[in-house]
Amino acid sequence: MANMIDDATIEYVGILAKLALSDEEKEQAKKDMGSMLDYIDKLGELDTSGVEPMSHVFPVQNVFREDVVTNKDDSENILANAPGSKDSMFKVPRTVE
Amino acid sequence: MNILDYTAVQLSEKIKQGEVKVAEAVEAVFEQIDKTEESLNCYVTLEKEKAFRQAAAIQEKIDRKELTGPLAGVPFAVKDNMCTKGTLTTCSSKILSNFVPTFSAEAVLRLEAAGAVIIGKTNMDEFAMGSTTETSYYGVTRNPKNPEHVPGGSSGGSAAAVAAKECFAALGSDTGGSIRQPASYCGVVGLKPTYGTVSRYGLIAYGSSLDQIGPLTKDVADCAAVLTAIASHDLKDSTSMEREDTDFTAALVADVKGMRIGIPRDYFGEGLDPQVKDAVLKAADVLKSQGALVEEFDLSLVEYAIPTYYTIAAAEASSNLERFDGVKYGYRAKGVEDLHPMYKRTRSEGFGPEVKRRIMLGSFVLSSGYYDAYYLKALKVKALIKRAFDDAFTKYDMILGPVAPTTAPKLGESLSDPIKMYLGDIYTISINLAGLPGISVPCGEDKNGLPIGLQLIGDSFQEKKLIRAAYTYEQCKEGK
Amino acid sequence: MAKQYETVIGLEVHVELATKTKIFCGCSTEFGGAPNTHTCPVCTGMPGSLPVLNKQVVEYALAVGLATNCTITQYCKFDRKNYFYPDNPQNYQISQLYLPICRDGYVEIDTPEGTKKVGIHEIHMEEDAGKLIHDEWEDCSLVDFNRSGVPLIEIVSEPDMRSADEVIAYLDKLRLIIQYLGASDCKLQEGSMRADVNLSVREAGCEKFGTRTEMKNLNSFRAIARAIEGERNRQIELLEAGKPVIQETRRWDDGKEYSYAMRSKEDAQDYRYFPDPDLAPVYISDEWLESVRSRQPELRTEKMKRYKEEYDIPDYDIEIITGTKHMADIFEATVALGSQPKKVSNWLMVETLRLLKEKELDPEDIRFSPGNLAKLIGLTEQRVINSTVAKEVFEEMFDRDIDPERYVEEKGLKTVNDEGALKKTVEEVIAVNPQSVEDYRNGKEKAIGFLVGQTMKAMKGKADPASVNKLLKELL
Known about the structure:
The complex is a heterotrimer of chains A (97), B (480) and C (476).
Chain A: H1 7-17, H2 23-40, E1 64-65, H3 75-79, E2 85-86, E3 89-93
Antiparallel strand pairs in A: 2-3
Chain B: H1 8-16, H2 22-40, E1 43-46, H3 48-63, E2 75-79, H4 106-113, E3 117-122, H5 156-163, E4 169-174, H6 180-186, E5 189-192, E6 212-217, H7 220-230, E7 260-264, H8 274-289, E8 293-297, H9 305-320, H10 339-350, H11 353-366, H12 371-395, E9 398-402, H13 418-423, H14 429-433, E10 438-445, E11 451-458, H15 463-476
Helix pairs in contact in B: 2-3, 5-6, 7-15, 9-11, 9-12
Chain C: E1 5-16, E2 53-54, H1 55-67, E3 71-72, E4 75-76, E5 79-82, E6 92-95, E7 102-111, E8 114-127, E9 131-134, E10 140-144, E11 151-157, H2 164-181, E12 193-203, E13 213-218, H3 221-240, E14 249-253, E15 258-261, E16 274-275, E17 282-283, H4 286-295, H5 300-310, H6 315-321, H7 325-336, H8 341-358, H9 370-381, H10 387-400, H11 404-411, H12 419-432, H13 434-441, H14 447-458, H15 465-475
Parallel strand pairs in C: 13-14
Antiparallel strand pairs in C: 1-11, 1-12, 3-7, 4-17, 5-6, 5-16, 7-8, 8-11, 9-10, 12-13, 14-15
Helix pairs in contact in C: 2-3, 7-8, 7-9, 9-10, 12-14, 12-15, 13-14, 14-15
C-alpha cells in the first residue's frame, strides 16, 4: 500500500473535519483512507498536462440577483429548529476571547 | 382493476373522470403501507393526516377544473433529503433527527403545484452516501421483490415504495447513480436529468456539482410527466439552467428508426454478471429490431470515473456537511461545555460511519499539500471524461449499457468492503461527472427473480431522446 | 552602537459595501435591527439553501479596483474557505482565493519624502460573518446573523509600508477613494472598514523580510498606530534576545496596549479552499468594464485640482472640503445654486467645522441642505439679516435643516432698514449716554463702539451695524 496514513494525519483531519473518532474508528479510518487514496492514485496514470480543471460542467456564467430587498423578518422560522436560543439568538458554548 | 395497479398518469385520468376520488387513492396507498411497510421500511416519515387534508383540497381544485394536469391527485413519496415545510426532513441521519424545515424544496413545490399529494418521506442512505439504503440511521429498507436483498441506494426508499405500490411515484436524487441503480434493483423506471434541469433549492446537498433530483416511477410515461412537472429554471439556484420545451411527455412516441445507439465495449467487461449482460444486450436487440442503428464502440476512461467521483464528491460533501454542527438546527451532543468539543461530539455522535468516512477523505484531499495532487487532478480527469462523452455524442444519439454490474445484493453483503461497494457504481457515476441525463428501465430478471435495469445515457439536454427510446423499448419488449 | 531596525507593514483591509441587500440573498444590510431579523435560510446556512450573487457587489468591487489601478480578472470565481466558528453559519465562508476580481494595483500616498506608491496585491469579494455576543448572565455566547452575508471586499496590500504614518496615509487614501465611489461609508469605529496589520521587522539594509505576524481587532487610527508601535517593539525585543518571531495571528488589546496570540489547538489554519460549486463564475466583458469605467465619479485628487482652477478659495479650504465626499457634495451643490464659492467655503470652514467639533460629529453627519445654505448666504448678501443673526439662524439650520427665509420671517429677525425708526433709537441712545458722547467728542474713538452696541441692543440685534455707525457719526 503506497498511502500509509499515520495517526498524526488522522488526528489532523479529525481537527479539520471536527470529528472525534474512537481508537477503533481511527484504525478503521487509517485503513479505509489508505486504500481509497491508493485507488485514487490511479488518476496519476493519466496525463492531464494542459487540461483545465473543470469545476462547472456547463459554461454558465453571470447568474445574478438585483440589489433589491426581498426578505422580511423571518427570525421566528430561522430560530425554530435551534437546539438552544435566547433573546432571539442562537445559544452556543462560550467562545474564548 | 385495483386502484394500486394504475400508473400515476392513469390514476389521475380516473380521478379527473370522477371514477376515483383523491382520498380513495390516498386510502389505498395507506392500506398498502399498512400491509408491507413493517417489513420493507420504505419511509422515515408518513404524513397520513396531512395527506388526507391535502387530498381534500386537491379534490376541490380538480372538481373546479383548476387542476387538469397528468399528476393531479396522485399520491407521491419524496426522498428524505428534500426539504418539506412542516414535515421532518432527516437525510436518514441522526444529526437531523429533529429537523423540521420552514420551507419546501423547489421540486416539491412544483410537484404540489401539479396537484400531487405528498404522503411521506422515504428512507435513503444517510446523506445519500451509499448504494444500498443500509447506512440509514432509521433502519434498512428491503427490496420488495425479495426482502432478503437491498433495494439499492441511495434513493432505495423511493424505489422500493414505488415497486411495493406504497405510492404511485416518487422523487429521488442522483449524485452517482442514486436514482438509476435502485430503480434497476427494484424494477421501476428512474431518470437522472441533465445537471441544472431540476432546481436544487431545498435539496440537502451531498455533492453539489453532481446532485440532481429526478423521478422514480412505474413506467416511462409517468417518468415523462413527473419530469415535466419538476423541471424549472429557478432563480434561487445559480446552477439552474434555462431550457426550452420542457414538455417531456411529447417524447412518448414508440419510434426509434434511424436513432444511433452506441454500446461501450468497456461497459461489458470484467465484473459484469452474465445474466445482466444478456438482458441488456437483448434490450439493445429490441431497439435494433425497431429500426435503431446499434453498434459497439470504445468510450475510454471508464475505470477512472470512480476515483474521480469519490474525490470530488467527498471533497464537496466534507464542506457541505460542515453546517451540521449543533448550533442552528438538528442534534446537539448533551453535556459539553466547550465549543470545539461540542462540535466534535455532536458530529461524531450525529453522523454514521460511511458519512464520517467520506468527510474524512474529503477533508484530506482538500487539505494543504494535497489539493493539487488529488482534488485538482480529479477536476482535470473530469474534464477528460466529459470530453470522451462529447466525442461519443458526435457519433451517437445515445449510449446504451447496464445500470449496475449485478442485480440487488443481499443485505449486509456490500458494506464490509467500501471499494467493492464503490465499484458497483461504475456505469452510473461518469454521467454525473459529465452532467448528462440517464434513464434506467426494467429489462428483465435474473434467475432469482431480481430485476435488471437497462441504462440509456443521452447528451446534455437530450432527455427527450432517452424518453422516446425507453418508451419504445417498454412498448415493444417481450411479453408486452 | 544599537542595531537599526526597519518595520515592514502590509495591510488587509475589509470594507463593507453599501449595497441594500446581502451578497447572496435578499436580506437587508441595514444596521441595528433586532437580532436575526435580517436573516433568511441562505445567510443562516439552512440545509438546502443556495446562494445567488448580488450584481451590485461586483459593480462596487470593479469600481474600487479601477480606482486603485488594478488589473481586473475578467473571468473570476468564488471559493469556499472552510473553518468552524459559530458566527460562520455554513462553517465555510464564500470568498475568492484562486481568481480574485482585482489584482496588481496601487495607490499613491503623501509622505515627508514625497509621493509613494503602495502596491495592492489583490481585492476580493466575500461575505461577512455574524456577530457573537457574550452573555453577561450565563456562561454562553449568543449568535446574531444580521451581519452574516453582508458583502465585503478585502483589499490586500503589498508589504510596502514602513511606518504607522504611512499606514494611516494609506488607509485614509483608501477611505477617500471608496467614499467618493459611494461603495462604502468606511467608518472604522462602526466596523464598515476594518484593518488587519501584517508586520515584520528586519535589520536596516537587510533584503530579506523577517517573520511576520498578523494583528486583528484594530478599530481606530489611534489603535492602529499604537498596535504598530507595540508589535514593532515586541518583535525587536525578541530578536535582540535571540528568540524567533513566530508567524501567528495576534489580537490587539488597545486598553492594555498589548497583543495576544490567538492560536489554539483546534485552529489548524488549513482552510481547504476549493471553487464553490453552488455559484456560477463571473465573466466581466470589456463592455461591462467600460460601462463601469465611464460611470466612475470624479475622485478626490481630480476634484482638488479642479477646485484650484475653478474656485478662488485657499488650498487649505480645498483640503478640508474635499476631505469627505459629503462636504464636497454640499459645497458643489451650494455653489451650483448661485452662491459665491468663497462664501460657501467660509460657512463650511468656520461655522460648520466649529459645530461639528462642539457636537462631536463627523462631516458625514452634516444634515443641512445645500438649498438652505444658499438661501442663508442670499439673506446675508442682501443684508436682510446681519452676520450675528445669520450665525444664529445657521445653528438652527445645522440642527434641524430649517428653511432660513421662513425662519427669519417667522421670528422677525430681519434687519430694520426704516431710517426713521433707526434715527429715533440712535437719538435716544445719545440722550441717555452723555458720558460716552462726551468721550467721543473729546476724541475717544472707541466710545462710538459702545454707542453702536447700545443701539444694536435696543434694536434687539436687528439693525445693520454699519448703518448705525454711520448715523451716529452724523448725529454727533
